[in-house]
Design a protein that fits this description.
Layout: H1 3-12, E1 16-18, H2 19-24, H3 29-37, E2 41-45, E3 48-51, H4 58-67, E4 73-74, H5 76-82, E5 92-96, E6 107-111, E7 120-123, E8 126-129, H6 131-138, H7 144-156, H8 162-173, H9 180-188, H10 200-211, E9 218-223, E10 226-232, E11 237-242, H11 250-265, E12 269-274, H12 275-280, H13 282-297
Parallel strand pairs: 5-6, 11-12
Antiparallel strand pairs: 1-3, 2-3, 4-5, 7-8, 9-10, 10-11
Helix pairs in contact: 5-6, 6-8, 7-9, 8-9
């Protein structure tokens, strides 16, 4: 393997190479040590190096931990970040089947004997647990409400179905897996049942309506050419929730206003709530909905 081939390998590995890879490329131990002395390669972990000039990144730190750990695989919160289930992460995390794997500075390590090939894939060039295994593992390291958010992001992005997550939970719970109970609780308490949502805010609104004892509404109800978030058809009341991205352009705002006016013209009352309303002022939202239902029924 030439130096050009080493550079290509490093590009595939977020700027990283390992000592065995350098030796396999034809460098001698003395030459590798010379690279370290001259800072041509910077040690990240024992036997794992960052090539000089390559900027540091979270992906690099995560892959370095995997490369330094025999049969290590990205898991838990780190895997959730790679799959887009968590919007951000501040931990480097992996799972290994070996009890005596090396202790690495700044790395959170889990041990599991059943992290096998069927649950490991490559994401952004990094070996990681697949989305199903990741969802069950998250219950061991995150609060239930955060696990619920991850579940909804995965459903929205069509990474998995509720049925598939439940099957994975059942498979792993037979082995006493930490986290299996949390994902079961999250799925049991999901206010929308098995219906997929378009985003997290719909799920939060459904939970709000359940928690405040409001009558169950029709979800994603069709009215002519339109589909609304929630509706009480007998009372002709519509509830719409708007996330931060709802009106990012003038065209989107114009289209939404025309849609709302058309629904009002058809005799429907439309209540609209933002993320701030649903998350920060749930009791006020519930009171407004309750008052509208009472007025329509009078």
């Amino acid at each position: 393997m030439s130096l050009t081939a080493i550079d290509r390998l490093a590009r595939r590995q977020h700027g990283l190479v390992t000592r065995p890879q350098l030796l396999a490329a034809g460098l001698t131990r003395h030459e590798v040590d010379g690279w370290l002395v001259r800072n041509r390669a910077v040690p990240i972990h024992p036997t794992v190096y960052r090539l000089a000039g390559v900027p540091e990144s979270w992906h690099q730190r995560q892959l370095a931990a995997v490369l330094a750990t025999p049969d290590g695989v990205t898991s838990h919160r780190a895997a959730a970040y790679l799959w887009g289930l968590l919007p951000e992460v501040d931990v480097v995390e992996l799972t290994t089947p070996y009890a005596r794997s090396p202790e690495l500075v700044g790395v959170t390590r889990h041990r599991s004997l059943d992290v096998h090939k069927a649950t490991v894939v490559t994401r952004d060039g990094i070996p990681t647990t697949n989305p199903l295994r990741t969802m069950v593992d998250l219950g061991a390291v995150l609060k239930p409400w955060l696990v619920a958010d991850c579940l909804e992001r995965g459903l929205t992005e069509k990474l998995f179905s509720l049925k598939a997550v439940d099957s994975e939970r059942i498979r792993l719970s037979r082995r006493g897996r930490r986290g299996a109970g949390v994902i079961r609780e999250v799925m049991d308490e999901r206010a929308l049942g098995s219906t997929p949502a378009d985003g997290l805010l719909e799920v939060r609104m459904a939970a709000l309506m359940r928690d405040f004892g409001l009558p169950q509404a029709e979800f994603q109800y069709a009215i002519g050419p339109y589909r609304v978030d929630f509706a009480y058809p007998p009372l002709r009341i519509i509830i719409e929730v708007d996330g931060w991205e709802a009106h990012q352009t003038r065209r989107a705002l114009q289209r939404d206003l025309e849609r709302q006016n058309a629904l009002i013209a058809l005799g429907w009352k439309v209540l609209r709530f933002t993320w701030e309303d649903v998350v920060r002022r749930p009791s006020k939202v519930a009171a407004q909905i309750r008052a509208a239902l009472a007025a329509a029924a009078a």
